């Protein structure tokens, strides 16, 4: 297949481009490098450009007859989305419509969308399945849900087929050590703990010890980046063969508290570091765990790296090699 990976210079997109390429597919990455890295594009062709720019999109779609588009280019910080909602609605929603309109103009019918557990908001129940009510509590989650809703209408109007994959907590790194997670600023738990372990950071803060969980810290479902990517590849292959539009929640179905993640990292790295108990971070639900039964049964998707020690080990190898400690 010929696949356009939008946002392929970022964390998830760069791992996806590698997997597609290694599986024999032709990959073109389109990325504006606002948060991605040129040196993360190691597989396929690269075009620097923004999805807000219709002329770039027309050039890209005219130069290659794509079988499908995977869209990873979005802003991802929940806290920032509350302070600057326009940034999130403009890029994550409005610019995505621009991309979809270009697909319609060039008759490209298959779209894989990076969605998020944030579309569900404060959960009514866990684990969260696809039927769970969608009540996002921040502009980030709303911007992603709005794309999911728009996709239903693009399908009716234009026959554009889509799979929306709602990630829980993506973590880990390429097992070959070629690619990993690099956000600036970093806000995610696993890389922040690893930075504390490597000495790049003085301490790790636990945001809240008074949640209604077993140890009082928040519980999340960490899924290896390679397993996320394998779900995308299976979903795309089925979509191109005519499976029709689908929505899946992607996680391992195992919840780990912040304190448990810190303990796992201590074991994996054999390092000790300072741990601080801090205030709650606004907007954090106590527990987010996925029910991925549908993805497992319909996609025959089986996560390969569902052990948090392995997830954090791969991320640690990246931290050690890339940041040279
Ligand atoms: N946390 C800490 N200390 C830190 C950083 C995070 O205790 O220094 C806690 C958070 O409060 C949260 C947990 O660790 O309870 C995980 O936080 P992350 O920021 O790593 O991940 P989130 O669960 O907040 O966010 C992830 C994705 C978002 C997505 C969201 C969906 O990164 O893009 O899941 O709920 F929106």
Characterise the protein shown here.
- By secondary structure, the chain is of the alpha/beta class.
- It has a domain at 2-170 and 224-250: NAD(P)-binding Rossmann-like Domain (Rossmann fold), CATH 3.40.50.720.
- The protein contains ten helices and 14 strands.
- The protein has helices at 11-22, 54-63, 78-83, 85-105, 139-158, 189-198, 225-240, 258-269, 293-299, 308-322; strands at residues 2-6, 26-31, 45-48, 68-71, 110-116, 161-167, 169-171, 203-207, 219-220, 222-224, 246-250, 256-257, 274-278, 287-288.
- Helix 1 crosses helix 7 (225-240).
- The chain is globular, with a radius of gyration of 19 Å.
- Uridine-5'-diphosphate-4-deoxy-4-fluoro-alpha-D-galactose binds at residues 76, 78, 116-118, 140, 169, 187-189, 192, 204-207, 218, 220, 258, 281, 284, 288.
Task: Report the helical percentage.
Answer: 25-40%
Radius of gyration: 19 Å
Number of strands: 14
What is the first-to-last residue Cα distance? Answer: 40 Å
Largest sheet geometry: 7 strands, parallel
Bound molecules: uridine-5'-diphosphate-4-deoxy-4-fluoro-alpha-D-galactose
CATH fold annotation of one domain = Rossmann fold
Based on secondary structure, the structural category is alpha/beta
The proportion of strand residues reads 15-25%
Count helical runs.
Answer: 10
